[in-house]
Each structure stands twice: as structure tokens, then as C-alpha cells.
């Protein structure tokens, strides 16, 4: 079964002195585009975490966050004075450069900026690192489950849209012979309206056969039918089929466009427009497939 690239996962682990929260979310992307926000004390784990995410998620625009919060009586917040001072200087410079008044409550604003407050009460040990690993694993697993659920919904949608296109393709058949007779009749009527005009009936039939062969859509119908079946087969191949499904949908579009250009019949062209509408919905959602 296919999987979606859209997903979200969250995990929380608590230690006697600290609560660690891990969040991860993903959207569609042609390859893995990973962005991480990890507290300074866990930076030694960053490469390990990135490797685990890349191995398990493969594709998608992935945002990964780790939050650490001290808890218990030992937790004591401290102000990082050098960081606070640096922010204050930047705020003053920005105020002058942009001609914007300094905020009335600038101190509380500065205290909310990243890394100003430090509430770490203990050094990082192996127990805490293992707790972080556990939270990372749980969050990724939750995202994977989300992707599977979304993939099932996408698969149902694709099967419905493919069935609709296949049904519309069958609706074309009754109009094929009808349009040939209409085209032939229009040409004969046009010739008969020309005064004192005579033509070779045998040569006319030969030219008509040649002209009608150019309008024949059997080959396009056959190829489109094969693409529809191949799309459904690929859906059953498991995850990692997003790019292939995209290629197949492009080929389906080519055949549908050719059907439209060759149809030369109002009702057939309406059917082709409905096919295109179904296909556009497929193309839009294929972008979300792993």
C-alpha cells in the first residue's frame, strides 16, 4: 500500500528532573528536506537523529523539534546575561535604523527570545540521551502511522478516479462510428453545394479513408487503458511509488489530450474534459505520495 508524505508525530518522556518533548511533521517534497531545531545540550545527538529520520522517512519536507523543560524542585531558571545583552543591542540598533520606537515592555520581550533563559539543572547523562532516543523513535513511529493512514485515503481516492476515467473511456465508443458518418456527410454536403462541380467517387473514397485513419483513436484508447491498469498495479506495490505514479499520470494525460484533439465531436470532447478533470485531481494528490 502507498504512503503519504504528509504526517505528524509527537512524543513526551519524563525524567525525575526534566521533560523532553519531540515533535516531527512532514509535507511533500521531491527528496528529503530536513530541518531540525535541537537544544544545544543535545547537539551531540543531531547526526544520529538525522540519520534515523533519513533512513525511516526517505522523502518529504521534514521539520523536527526537540523541547526540554526542567521540572521538580531542582529546576532553577537562570538568565543568560551575554545573550540578553546581545539581543538588547540589536533591538536598539534596529529601533534607530528603522525609526521605530523602542517597545515599552522591552525587557519581557527579550526574556522570551531563544536561549535567554536557561533552566538546565543537571548535566546530560546516558539515561537522558536514551530517553531522547526513545522519544525520537516514538515520534517517528507516530508519523509513519499517520503516513500509512493518509496513504490508505489517497489509494481509495486514486482507485475511484481511475475507475471514473475507465468508465468515461467506455462512454466514448458509441460516438466513434457516429462521428465518422457525420464527418463524411459534412464533406459531401459541402461538395454538393459547389455549382457545376464533379469529382471522382473512387478517389473521394480513398481520400476519405486516409482522412478517417488520421482521426482513428483506437491506439490512444488502448494505450490509455494500459496506463490505467499500470497505475492500479503500481498502487499495490507498496511505498516509494510516488514518482512512478507521477510519470504514469503524465502519460495518461498525453493520451487524453490526443483523444481530445482527434475527437472532432462535441459529445466526445465533453467526455474528454471530464477525463481531464479526474486526471487533474490525481496529479494534484500524487505529489503527496511517497
Brief summary:
By secondary structure, the chain is α+β, with helices and mostly antiparallel strands.
Estimated helix fraction: 55-70%
Count of DSSP-assigned helices: 8
Radius of gyration: 32 Å
Report the uncertain regions.
Answer: none
The first-to-last residue Cα distance is 11 Å
* Secondary structure: number of strands: 6
Structural class: alpha+beta
- Summarize the main sheet: 4 strands, mixed
What multimeric state do the chains show? Answer: single chain
Average of per-residue pLDDT values: 85
Q: Element order, helices and strands?
A: EEEHEEHHEHHHHH
- The rough form would be described as elongated
| Strand order in the largest sheet | 1-2-4-3
Proportion of residues in β-strands: 5-15%
Describe the fold and architecture.
It is a single chain. With 290 residues, the chain is α+β, with helices and mostly antiparallel strands. Among the domains are: 41 residues, no CATH class; 136 residues, no CATH class. The chain is built from 8 helices and 6 strands. The strands form 2 sheets. The protein has a 4-stranded mixed beta sheet with strand order 1-2-4-3. A two-stranded antiparallel ribbon has the order 5-6. Strand 3, helix 1 and strand 4 form a beta-alpha-beta unit. Helix 6 runs antiparallel to helix 7 and helix 7 packs antiparallel against helix 8. The longest helix has 67 residues. The termini are close together. The mean pLDDT is 85.
Amino acid at each position: 500500500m502507498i504512503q503519504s508524505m504528509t504526517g505528524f508525530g509527537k512524543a513526551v518522556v519524563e525524567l525525575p528532573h526534566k521533560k523532553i518533548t519531540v515533535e516531527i511533521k512532514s509535507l511533500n517534497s521531491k527528496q528529503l528536506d530536513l530541518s531540525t531545531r535541537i537544544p544545544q545540550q543535545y547537539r551531540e545527538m543531531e547526526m544520529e537523529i538525522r540519520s534515523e529520520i533519513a533512513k525511516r522517512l526517505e522523502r518529504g519536507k521534514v521539520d523536527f523539534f526537540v523541547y526540554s523543560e526542567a521540572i521538580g524542585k531542582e529546576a532553577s531558571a537562570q538568565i543568560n546575561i551575554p545573550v540578553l545583552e546581545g539581543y538588547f543591542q540589536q533591538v536598539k540598533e534596529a529601533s534607530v535604523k528603522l525609526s521605530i520606537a523602542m517597545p515599552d515592555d522591552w525587557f519581557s520581550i527579550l526574556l522570551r527570545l531563544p536561549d535567554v533563559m536557561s533552566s538546565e539543572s543537571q548535566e546530560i547523562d546516558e539515561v537522558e540521551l536514551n530517553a531522547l532516543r526513545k522519544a525520537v523513535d516514538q515520534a517517528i513511529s507516530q508519523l509513519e502511522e499517520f503516513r500509512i493512514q493518509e496513504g490508505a485515503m489517497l489509494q481509495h481516492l486514486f482507485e475511484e478516479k481511475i475507475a471514473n476515467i475507465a468508465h468515461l473511456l467506455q462512454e466514448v465508443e458509441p460516438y466513434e462510428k457516429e462521428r465518422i458518418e457525420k464527418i463524411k456527410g459534412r464533406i459531401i454536403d459541402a461538395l454538393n453545394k459547389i455549382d457545376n462541380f464533379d469529382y471522382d467517387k473512387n478517389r473521394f473514397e480513398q481520400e476519405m479513408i486516409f482522412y478517417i485513419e488520421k482521426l482513428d483513436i483506437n491506439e490512444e484508447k488502448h494505450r490509455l487503458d494500459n496506463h490505467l491498469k499500470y497505475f492500479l498495479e503500481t498502487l499495490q506495490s507498496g511505498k516509494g511509488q510516488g514518482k512512478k505514479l507521477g510519470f504514469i499520470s503524465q502519460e495518461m494525460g498525453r493520451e487524453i489530450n490526443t483523444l481530445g484533439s482527434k475527437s472532432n465531436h462535441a459529445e466526445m470532447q465533453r467526455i474528454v474534459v471530464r477525463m481531464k478533470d479526474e486526471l487533474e485531481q490525481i496529479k494534484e494528490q500524487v505529489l503527496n505520495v511517497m
